[in-house]
Amino acid sequence: MIPVDLIPWLLAPAIFIARVADVSLGTVRIIIGFRGYRWLAALIGFVEALIWVLAVRQVLLHLDAQPWLAVAYASGFAGGNYLGISLERRLGVGRELVRAISYREDAGLAGALREAGYRVVELEGRGKGGRRVQVIYVVEQRRKVPALIARIAALDPEVIYTVADVKTHVGEEGDLPPETGFSLRFKRK
Length: 189
Description:
Elements: H1 11-34, H2 38-62, H3 68-91, E1 95-102, H4 109-115, E2 121-126, E3 132-141, H5 145-155, E4 160-166
Antiparallel strand pairs: 1-3, 1-4, 2-3
């Protein structure tokens, strides 16, 4: 291994990259932990702490001679937050509840979504002035929610919808799309 003292100009980028990695992992760890993946969150936390200790050690050892390391450290923190949130969005772990309200009686929103394979709960409601509305609820995997919203908007361009995170869902699990992949091994039981 090459001593860091021999190549001081590499230290700042290395600290920046280490901080981006450590903070990105921390952001993903917190969000994944919130969604119930405790073992995966613990594993990520271990790697995050290890990177942090190594980066902080280098900053503190060389800060007197290279004060710009503090800027690299802080910049890595900022970049890591941005990257961590972006990564978590791309991972799309968990499920979300999509609520849609349609004022069009001819939209056939619930039927069209059922035909497309979605589990839909349909309610009748009253909107402003007592006007009839169709309210639907769909629980879907996070990574598939954009496609669901696009389908809903195509069926009724004037639909009102909200999306909420689902931490826990109970019942009728056989009807829900299965979660697959590496992260399922770490799912809360």
